[in-house]
């Protein structure tokens, strides 16, 4: 599948360098488009398939909305990032 090729060629090497681990693509949930006012419910990724998870945000031209994303590390610390979407 084309998206898997893109993930394996471009994203996996970055995550392997960051983590210091050899990784295997086990899940790819595809692209999503969210519009102003949309939200994604908090969730926890599956530990059997998501050893490392990544979100790639693609900026739309002339975007002005703020899109927050929140992560929680293994120690339970919350981190919130906001970017234009």
What would your notes on this structure say?
With 85 residues, the chain is an alpha+beta fold. Helices cover 21% and strands 16% of the residues. The longest helix is centred in the N-terminal third of the chain and has 18 residues. It is globular.
Architecture blueprint of SSEs:
Layout: H1 2-19, E1 66-72, E2 78-84
Antiparallel strand pairs: 1-2
Quick overview:
This protein has one helix at 2-19; strands at residues 66-72, 78-84.
Percent strand: 15-25%
Distance between the termini: 27 Å
Biggest sheet statistics = 2 strands, antiparallel
Q: What does the radius of gyration come to? A: 14 Å
What is the number of helical segments per DSSP (H or I, 4+ residues)? 1
Structural class of the secondary elements?
Answer: alpha+beta
The unreliable regions are none
Helix content: 10-25%
Biggest sheet strand order reads: 1-2
Count all strands and give the number. Answer: 2
Keywords, separated by commas or semicolons:
single chain, 85 residues, globular, two-stranded antiparallel ribbon, alpha+beta
